[in-house]
Write a structure and sequence with these properties.
The complex is a heterodimer of chains A (505) and B (142).
Chain A (H helix, E strand, L loop, with lengths): L1 H18 L3 H21 L6 H5 L5 H16 L3 H4 L1 H9 L13 H12 L2 H14 L2 H26 L2 E2 L5 E2 L2 H11 L3 H38 L1 H5 L1 H16 L4 H28 L1 H16 L7 H17 L5 H6 L7 H8 L1 H20 L15 H11 L3 H32 L3 H20 L4 H40 L8
Antiparallel strand pairs in A: 1-2
Helix pairs in contact in A: 1-13, 1-22, 2-23, 4-9, 4-16, 4-23, 6-18, 7-18, 7-19, 7-21, 8-16, 8-19, 8-20, 9-10, 9-15, 9-16, 9-18, 9-19, 9-23, 10-11, 10-23, 11-13, 11-21, 11-22, 11-23, 13-21, 13-22, 14-15, 14-19, 14-21, 19-20, 20-21, 21-22
Chain B lengths: L3 E6 L3 H17 L2 E9 L8 H30 L4 E8 L1 H12 L3 E5 L6 H6 L2 H8 L4 E4 L1
Parallel strand pairs in B: 1-2, 1-4, 2-3, 4-5
Helix pairs in contact in B: 3-5
Classes of the chains: A mainly alpha (505), B alpha/beta (142).
Chain lengths: 505, 142
């Protein structure tokens, strides 16, 4: 272990010293650009004719996610509303058999999956959505969050049902497994295998990009604005982050993870409470804020593309933030021991609700209530985390640094979660061997340093595109597997009604 | 119905003393003795995805280790046929109290832990909590 750390530190030093030169950025760009450019423009391509109709491009991938969520919502008869109470009961532990104490509880499964999605999207992403789409974007964001609950429900049930369980007790699951095994069951083995491999490749890209480089890059900027030393030497900050990530994912968790375990939920609570207090302090303006949100949603004053512009921003940021339909949560949930796959679906449908409907909405309410939003092109227009920060600062000066620290911690927990998703995709492609996993983990750590130290441009676009590419392959397969989910759901509901899973509280 | 006593142990020096004392009391009263070892566990602690995956495997390992490394040697030391072992997960004091209720125990025994750290000052020690929540008499063995 110690020897390993030494080798690792020397690799890091090497990477860091390289990244001091701008040339690595050029090398990366010239390597990636020829094939990444077309891929990125394909993923984010506007729907044909949307520019002419709406006056602004509507990326087809956003439409793809929203249509999927809508179809799942109808197909499962509004499960996100009808099953909501049951979800809460499951998470509260009402059905958790005391004999299973020591296993993962539904609450823990929910928190772990949330740690991968609650993050920069909720702070910076909302800042972007409201900045460009106006307060009205909030309405569409909430709607997309509510619909996304059905997507998560569907993919997480499949994740558990088709996971691989190995003799030594470890588990591998996620879209790669349900796409290949599930579609093979339906006589479409070839298609399933192809979708699974493509998904796994996209997942590795998403893991290293959006789940890592992007997070490292954004937190380096946050900390850089707080501590000038790191602002001038982002590579050093990147190395610190990389060492922490290394300790958690290679060194076997324990110490550092235990610290983040305590701090991340704490920061989440601090963030939500602060937002709530600001909302309560301005309770008189809440009505007006909702008015602005509704009005903005359907008329979109001051927004490029009007109501449609608001809608695109809201949908896009919701998808970025809660990852419903992307397939990432299915990987995390499939590892949980459960008496029936359907329970994980019920637990998972709370994730878009908490992530988007609750946390994102609070951020945008704070922005709207404090009147921090200024339309694009007018004086005082801010976007992203700067907008969120301004909104909080306007009520409590000195909140900026707290927000910056929260953003970094959220980024860290997102990185840990995505490293796991990446490993699962990696082992699907290259087999379950320890050396291969170690190689991936070392690459992952090196990317932290690269991500933090250089402005990535095309690579960031590429990683965003990779995350959405996951959704392309995942959702295509999930459509074909929907009937299986319905079958599992009916089986669960029948057995639940028959008293097979008794309430213990 | 014969009486039953419960002793909570953690495998430390002090808990051997406690168990021996409990056994002596049980023998005197003609009671059976249950030796319980509780693995500290919270349903709300945060897990990384990797821990989530390993939890099931770890749990089996932990139960196995508790049986072979804590309960087994303890029963051997006590050398009594009337003593039986039990391993549970949860908040130590709460689990011991619930277990006593579950089996209808008449008396519980726990050791007084040596340490008096900050957490036990703030949140109470195992014997402290057990004394407060237990529905049956509790003997704290120094």
């Amino acid at each position: 272990m110690r020897k390993l750390s030494k080798i690792f530190i020397s690799i890091l030093t090497l990477v860091a010293s390289f990244s001091a030169f701008a040339s690595i950025e050029e090398t990366l760009t010239s390597f990636v650009e020829p094939w990444a450019g077309p891929f990125v423009s394909f993923i984010f391509a506007p729907l044909y004719g949307s520019e002419a109709i709406f006056g602004t491009g509507f990326p087809w991938i956003v439409m793809w996610l929203v249509i999927a969520a809508t179809i799942f919502t109808f197909y499962f008869g509004f499960i996100q509303f009808r099953g909501f109470k049951h979800s809460i009961e499951l998470v509260r532990g009402d059905y958790f058999d005391p004999k299973d104490a020591g296993q993962v509880t539904p609450f823990q499964a929910l928190c772990t999956a949330l740690s991968g999605t609650v993050g920069l999207g909720n702070i910076a992403g909302v800042g972007v959505a409201v900045a460009i789409g106006g307060p009205g974007a909030t309405f569409w964001m909430i709607l997309a969050g509510l619909m996304g609950m059905a997507s998560k429900f569907t993919e997480c049930i499949l994740g558990v049902h088709y996971r691989n369980e190995y003799a030594d007790g470890h588990v591998s699951g996620g879209p790669m497994y349900y796409l290949s095994k599930g579609l093979a069951e339906r006589g479409m083995g070839g298609l399933g295998r192809a979708l699974a491999v493509l998904f796994a490749i996209a997942c590795i890209g998403g893991s290293l990009g959006g789940g890592n480089a992007f997070q490292a890059n954004q937190s380096a900027q946050q900390i850089g604005s707080l501590i000038p030393f790191f602002g001038e030497n982002p590579a050093i900050f990147g190395m610190i982050m990389a060492v922490l990530v290394f300790i958690v994912i290679v060194g076997g968790i324990k110490s550092i993870a235990k610290v983040t375990d305590k701090i991340v939920p704490f920061m989440a609570v601090v963030y939500i409470t602060s937002a709530l207090i600001i909302i309560l302090m301005n309770i008189g303006s809440v009505g007006a804020a909702f008015g602005a949100i509704f009005e903005g949603a359907f008329t979109g004053p001051g927004v490029v593309g009007g109501a449609i512009g608001a809608l695109i921003q809201g949908f896009k940021r919701a998808a970025f933030s809660n990852e419903a339909g992307v397939g990432s949560a299915a990987i995390a949930h499939s590892a949980v021991q459960t008496k029936h796959p359907a329970t994980e679906g019920y637990v998972a449908l709370l994730e878009p609700f908490i992530d988007t409907v609750v946390i994102c909405t609070m951020t945008s309410l704070v922005i709207t209530i404090t009147g921090s939003w200024v339309p694009v092109g007018e004086e005082g227009h801010l976007a992203g985390i700067a907008l969120t920060s301004k909104a909080f600062e306007s009520q409590w000066s000195g909140f900026g640094p707290v927000l910056a620290v929260a953003a970094v911690l959220f980024a860290f927990s997102t990185m840990i979660a995505w490293s796991y998703y990446g490993i699962k995709a990696w082992t699907y492609l290259f087999g379950e061997n320890a050396v291969g996993q170690l190689i991936f983990k070392l690459i992952f750590c090196a990317v932290v340093v690269i991500g933090a130290s250089i402005p990535l441009g095309i690579v960031i676009d590429l990683s965003d595109a990779m995350i959405f590419a996951m959704a392309v392959f995942n959702i295509a397969g999930v459509y074909l597997l929907m009937p299986k989910v319905k079958e599992l759901l009916h089986d669960y509901q029948g057995r639940l009604a028959a008293g097979e899973f008794p309430k213990v509280k | 119905m014969s009486k039953s006593y419960v002793v909570g142990i953690d495998g430390s020096e002090g808990s051997i003393r406690t168990a021996q004392y409990a056994l002596a009391q049980a023998d005197k009263a003609g009671a059976s003795l249950k030796v319980i070892h509780v693995l500290e566990w919270s349903p709300y602690s945060f897990l990384t995805p990797e821990e989530l995956e390993e939890r099931h495997k770890r749990r089996q390992e932990e139960l196995e280790r508790a049986k072979t490394a804590v309960i087994g040697p303890m029963l051997e030391k006590l050398g009594s046929d009337s003593a039986e072992g039990e391993v549970r997960y949860g908040q130590i004091a709460e689990v011991i109290s619930n277990y006593c209720d579950e089996i209808g125990a008449d008396q519980a025994f726990v050791g007084r832990h040596g340490g008096g750290g900050l957490t036990s000052r703030l949140f109470g020690s195992v014997p402290g909590i057990l004394v407060q929540i237990s529905n049956i008499p509790v003997t704290v063995v120094p």
